[in-house]
Amino acid sequence: MRPPSEPLHTVSNPGAWASEYHAPVMAARIVELFRACDDVLDGTLGGGGHALALLEAGVRVTGIDRDPQAVAASRERLAAFKTAGRFRAVAANYADLDDVAALADARFNGILLDLGVSSHQLDDLARGFSFREGAALDMRMEGHDGGPDAASLLQEADERTLTHIFRDYADEPRAHRLAREIVRRRERRPFTTSDDLVDAIRAALGAPPRTSPSVFARLFQAVRIAVNDELGGLERALPSLRDRLTPGGVMAVIAYHSGEDRIVKNAFRAWSAACTCPPRQPICTCGGKALGTTLTRKAVAASDAEVEANPRARSAHLRAWQSAA
Question: Torsion-angle region of residue 215: left (phi > 0), alpha (psi -120 to 50) or beta?
């Protein structure tokens, strides 16, 4: 790692980090968090916006993404840095990093996760992340090479599972009513496009404002999370990623869903605790030692100016943690 006192290279205009593929959220804050790092793993490469900001700041970056389109776009965008030996991209899921042979022994003094989906994924109707009319019910991060798609989930999951998805991933109080409506409708015709799910939501939850765009977005997001096992993957991945940090290394996670943010907050809190004895035990007997320190007392939100420029940043929550030196 660079000495903390060593300045970063001059950072360009933040607007230069955005692309047609995606606008990175809180990129300047990410650069600041990794100011002493020289080798960072970007576990959610996307369109390469955060990677570009870090590369321009003099950091070496290894980027991975489970979406082959994102990897291809970033390789093209950051080709000059690859030629210079400062950037490489690998098609992989950050949750399966230990299975990636190319990174078997790699360690980093910075790790970044920018969770959720990119603007490109949302805007591409063929990817099926959107509730816009006629979109395919796909939602697989890996594209067509992934596992079962959203249509299969909605067609095959039982009522109890669907209730769990909408209640726990979307905080929907009428989750059981919606699950029952989906099961009833699929007996007549299969779910194939966004219109099928939108119609089921309207039938189960009622007319606007009960079914506003924000409601559709929340419920479609819940299906996407289930299709890609996003919360389970994050929970499994965090300890493995932590163990890839060198002493004093920094991990930063940007979450857009309350479930994601809760998992990150609880993990960072547990890793920062010195004692693991039961709360009511009067004397510590575990001899525990904190694995590191939480750098963000509470989640950091995007600025008003950034949200105005990029409305998709409004739900972002950034947390950071540093391993013990």
Answer: alpha
Pair (224, 235) in one structural domain? no
The pTM of the full predicted model, rounded to 2 decimals, is 0.87
d(CA 184, CA 159): 10
Q: Could you give the CA distance from residue 265 to residue 257 in angstroms, rounded to a whole number?
A: 12
211 and 161 housed in the same domain: yes
Q: Which residue has the higher pLDDT, 131 or 59?
A: 59
pLDDT tens per residue, range 228-280: 999 999 999 999 999 999 999 999 999 999 999 999 999 999 999 987 777 77
Is residue 319 within 8 A of residue 255, CB to CB? The reply is yes
CATH number, domain at 260? 3.40.50.150
User: Phi and psi dihedrals of 292, rounded to 5?
Assistant: 175, -160
48, 78 in Cβ contact below 8 A? Answer: yes
Q: Output the CA–CA distances (angstroms, integers) from residue 13 to 16, 252, 292, in the order listed.
A: 6, 22, 33
Q: Which domain holds residue 66?
A: 14-114+231-323
The 10s digit of each residue's pLDDT in 136-190 is 899 998 877 768 999 999 999 999 999 999 999 999 999 999 999 999 999 999 9
Is 38 a member of any domain?
Answer: yes
